[in-house]
Amino acid sequence: MNKPNVIDVNLRNFAAEVVRRSQGVPVLVDFWAEWCGPCKSLTPVLEKLAAEYGGRFILAKCNTDENQDLARQFGIRGIPSCKLFKDGALVAEFQGAQPEGEVRRFLDAHCADLEDEPLDVARHLIGGGQTAEAIGILEALLTEDPGLDDARLLLVRAFIQQHDFDKAREALQALPETHSEVKSLQQMIDYASSASEYGTVEECEARVQKDPQDLEALYRLGVVLTLEDRFQEAMDRFLQVIARNKNYGEGKVRQAMLALFEVLGPDHELTHQYRRKFANLVL
Q1: Which residues are 178's β-sheet partners?
Q2: Which CATH code fits 195-282?
């Protein structure tokens, strides 16, 4: 049975589900094993708090018997061992079956209390990949006040991340065309919608490998990667095109980068990192 805000992680998905996801919401990794008695007392506490905190953190459970490479990588010598990731980095940890009160104090020190700020809750949920939960919050806010442009912009981003482009367009139509972010988000929707004709990531990669100088193939690979939420890889492909021809496709690659910045939002680590790289190439 699925538990709220609880996921299982392994070597294959650790980078995406812990490191990248922590750029939007704190992720607490619980290293455990079936034979571990203290783990059996701590795990229910962690799962209870993950549900109770309502998206303020994600609990990622890592079975050390099945993921010995990860356990070695993080120096796990005793379990249970819990490590907290924020903004893509390990920031705090504790070891042993701590009482619920101690775990609460640990979490409260590192996970912002967002209960009175629904927009902040939605931003963190979107950053953590929980777009369905974010959409519920944003739609409730907009029902109460349809004029909340910030909430509507977040709703458009959430729909784009879900690849629900019809709903994204519908939400975008309610915003004034003069709004600074509307044009970029509309372009992102258009780019993503057109990707269906480009084929799969594997097919696009094959075209690039066949002719690394084919800028259109590189651009299309970037668009298709975007649809799989592989944003960093997509930006790398777009920058490769811009480095060779900053005005390629009448500036469509530059616009694709700007649209991605809008979808990710100004506070996302990738936006900070790649906006500098982008500026160095186009200025």
Answers
A1: none
A2: 1.25.40.10
Q: What's the CA gap between 117 and 17, in Å, rounded?
A: 25
pLDDT tens, residue by residue, 223-256: 888 877 788 899 999 999 999 998 998 888 998 8
Distances (CA, A) of 91 to 31, 34, 82: 16, 26, 11
Neighbours of 146 (CB within 10 A): 11
Order across the sheet with 89-95: list the strands.
6-8, 58-63, 27-32, 81-86, 89-95
CATH number of this structure's domain 6-110: 3.40.30.10
**Catalytic residue set:** 36, 39
Closest CA to 76 of 49, 21, 36: 36
As to burial, measured by CB atoms within 10 angstroms (0-12 exposed, 13-18 middle, 19+ buried), residue 238 is buried
Angle of CA points 239, 240, 241, to nearest 5°: 90
Q: Where are the domains of the chain?
A: 6-110, 118-163, 195-282
31 bridge partner residues: 62, 81
Q: What is the pLDDT of residues 59-108, one digit of tens each?
A: 999 999 999 999 999 999 999 999 999 888 899 999 999 999 999 989 98
Residue 87: what residue type? D
- Residue 10 tokens, joined: 């392994």
Query: Helices in 16-130 by DSSP H: which ranges?
Result: 37-52, 68-73, 100-110, 118-127
Q: Do domains 6-110 and 195-282 have the same CATH topology?
A: no
What number of other Cβ atoms are within 10 A of residue 147's Cβ? 8
For 215, how many CA atoms within 13 A lie in the half-sphere containing its CB? 16
